[in-house]
Design brief:
heterodimer, A: 401 residues, alpha/beta, Rossmann fold, 6-stranded mixed β-sheet, 4-stranded parallel β-sheet, 17 helices, globular, B: 257 residues, TIM Barrel, 9-stranded parallel β-sheet, binds pyridoxal-5'-phosphate
Chain lengths: 401, 257
């Protein structure tokens, strides 16, 4: 493949397909909204005013660029060169803020007055509530009843920021159901409401929109890596995958450079064969979830199964269509990491480097144990968020009381 | 000729009723169908239960989870519907989300529909464009009518397009909402019904979502070919179970007051 063909194949076609994945499988009620978004998103995000404002907010409000930090003690441990892309140091504590700043500017440009969002770990909810406060817009966040319990600090943050948190009480009462509720809300409020989706999932053009907004991660890391090492490319880029937005952003500017190996870490929960897992790449089959054709975990009858992971942000039975395509085409490889492995990796990073990562990000760190890294290899791992929200789980699970 | 098309050619003020297959009990499906026909329902929509029904409100969601817990699946449904032709004469359409259908295999799904005598399909998350590109021929070869939705937000040009592609009726979603029980009709709903009526479409339209009693049924019949009642009937089944005489009473009350 030429470079151009290669690059084209990682962008969706006009109908939103990456190879066989993606598209917009949505009820008629949502067609006008999606058409409107499709018509506007590229125009807006390519405009000079947007670019200027986005850049300035990322810098002065969110605290970008985030450092690319050489983790020397961890490197010694793995006998290689490990670099951490520190999304945990952004305002609100995760990469989710990159996307919400971008989409709130888009929503404002489109004249929307009411913002709705879904959240799992609460990081996207907090990031959405934050930009709504910043923009002075009404904010409603749907969150699974179970997640409201296990991510209590983030619920409090959203409330303090002025958002209304609505519990999703159907199904598994986690991220999948919060997303269903947000979509139902959008159906019922078709004109004034903007659905600010939190990952590279959902109907086209959301996966492409969110990937573009998160691509700042690799835009920075590519340049930082070159400056710090004098080398053109790292050997590996590793990121955790829930819906896949921090991974999409971490991979984006390396996609066309096949010498960079791309690794996604998904949540195996209690183990791939335990029945309590969220490993949609390893176990999923092609189907439709939240308007997108992708891999998802489902029964033989095509019912979406209830996922499980200790990490609320990875507790999703599907995966963004870009990742389904990267997996199928062989461009990226996806590893599954159990709860236990993630907890151990979180403790390791904390004790070796003094950084408490989010449970989600700990999955990316744990993937190192499954990779065959050579002594001179350079590995960039995205630390997608910080662990403050997970302290209760860490205390309980690691017996830190 | 398709049975469904025939109903529209000969009647107005049609009443269609929706219920979820396998609810309240796994073996309720045929029983409910028969009672609905006896009560005077003109055609029936049988819902295929799904874990993630995006366009449905709490009442239908709940019936869906219960049907799934009862073990309902497409395989079981087609097994039950083998007796369809021996049970009722009124047309039956299936309403379901795309994922279970794809998992079943869409060719064999359509083939099964034809064999048991299903007249039409409503697949809310199969957009018109993808239907046209991938499935139209398959549907038409099997004489299965695909039913499109229109909403208050659907633009005129698109309505005309859907009208041309329709072979039985257009499903007019009564307001911007998911399914559910609502009380009366608002001024803006009436304006929307009038707007569609004045477009003089070739395809008859049925109004659904939020129609729950005789009054709203009669009212929408002034603008459309009839009405579809869903959540209100599911609620009835929740309270009264699948008792035939209660179902007949429910339909008669709706139709004739
Ligand atoms: C810190 C953190 N990392 C990762 C994720 C997973 O999302 P994604 O795969 O879209 O990056 C989340 C989601 O809540 C998160 O909070």
């Amino acid at each position: 493949m030429t470079k151009e063909e290669l690059s084209k194949s990682f962008h969706p076609d006009e109908k939103g397909f990456y190879g066989p994945f993606g598209g917009a499988f949505i009820p008629e009620m949502l067609i006008p909204n999606i058409e409107n978004l499709k018509k506007n998103y590229l125009k807006v995000i390519h405009s000079e005013t947007f670019k200027k404002e986005f850049k300035s907010l990322l810098q002065d409000y969110a605290g970008r660029p985030t450092p690319l930090y050489y983790a020397s003690r961890l490197s010694k441990k793995y006998n290689s060169h490990i670099w951490l892309k520190r999304e945990d140091l952004t305002h609100t504590g995760s990469h989710k803020i990159n996307n919400t700043i971008g989409q709130i500017l888009l929503a404002r440009e489109m004249g929307k007055k009411r913002i709705i969002a879904e959240t799992g770990a609460g990081q996207h909810g907090v990031a959405t509530a934050t930009v709504c406060a910043l923009a002075g817009l009404e904010c409603i966040v749907y969150m699974g009843e179970i997640d409201i319990k296990r991510q209590a600090p983030n619920v409090a943050r959203m409330k303090m920021l002025g958002a209304e948190v609505r519990a999703a009480t159907s199904g598994s009462r986690t991220l999948k159901d919060a997303t269903n509720e947000a979509i139902r809300d959008w159906i019922a409020h078709p004109t004034e409401t903007y659905y600010l989706i939190g990952s590279v999932v959902g109907p086209h053009p959301y996966p492409d929109l969110v990937a573009r907004l998160q691509s700042i991660i690799s835009e920075e890391s590519k340049q930082q890596f070159r400056e710090k090492t004098g080398n053109e490319f790292p050997d590996y880029v590793v990121a955790c995958v829930g819906g896949g937005s921090n991974a999409a952003g971490s991979f984006y500017h390396f996609l066309e450079h096949p010498q960079v190996k791309l690794i996604g870490a998904e949540a195996a929960g209690m183990g791939l064969s335990s029945g309590k897992t969220a490993a949609s790449m390893a176990l999923g089959e092609t189907g439709i979830i939240h308007g997108s054709m992708t891999y998802l975990m489902q029964t033989d009858d095509g019912q979406i199964t209830e996922p499980y992971s200790i990490s609320a942000g990875l507790d999703y039975p599907g995966v963004g269509p870009l990742h389904a395509w990267l997996n199928k085409s062989g461009r990226a490889k996806y590893l599954s990491v159990t709860d236990k492995e993630a907890l151990q990796a979180a403790l390791l990073l904390t004790r070796e480097e003094g950084i408490i990562p989010a449970l989600e990000s700990a999955h990316a760190l744990a993937a190192l144990n499954q990779m065959e890294i050579k002594p001179d290899d350079n590995v960039i791992i995205t630390i997608s968020g910080r662990g403050d929200k997970d302290m209760q789980t860490f205390m309980d699970q690691l017996n830190l009381v | 000729m398709n049975k469904l098309t025939n109903v529209f050619n000969h009647n107005s003020n049609l009443l269609s009723i929706y219920f979820t297959a396998g609810f309240p009990n796994a073996d309720s499906t045929l029983h409910v169908l028969k009672a609905l026909e006896q009560g005077g329902t003109d055609f029936v929509e049988v819902g295929i239960p799904y874990s993630d029904p995006l366009a449905d409100g709490p009442v239908i969601q709940n019936s869906s989870s219960r049907a799934l817990a009862n073990g309902m699946s497409l395989k079981m449904l087609f097994d039950q519907l083998k007796e369809l032709k021996n049970t009722v004469n009124i047309p039956v359409i299936l309403m379901g989300y795309l994922n279970p259908i794809l998992k079943f295999g869409i060719e064999s799904f359509i083939e099964n529909c034809r064999q048991v005598g299903v007249s039409g399909l409503i697949i809310p998350d199969l957009p018109y464009e993808i239907y046209l590109e991938k499935y139209q021929t398959l549907f038409e070869q099997n004489n299965i009518s695909n039913i499109f939705l229109i909403t208050p937000q659907t633009g005129e040009e698109r309505i005309r397009k859907l009208d041309r592609a329709s072979t039985s009726f257009l499903y007019m979603v009564s307001s911007a909402a998911v399914t559910g029980v609502r009380d009366g009709l608002s001024e803006s709903q009436i304006q929307y019904f009038e707007r569609i009526k004045n477009m003089q479409l070739k395809t008859p339209a049925m109004v659904g979502f939020g129609i729950s009693n005789h009054k709203t049924y009669r009212e929408v019949c002034r603008y459309a070919h009839g009405a579809i009642v869903g959540s209100a009937f599911i609620k009835h089944l929740e309270t009264h179970g699948d008792d035939a005489s209660e179902i007949i009473k429910f339909v008669k009350n709706l139709k004739n007051n």
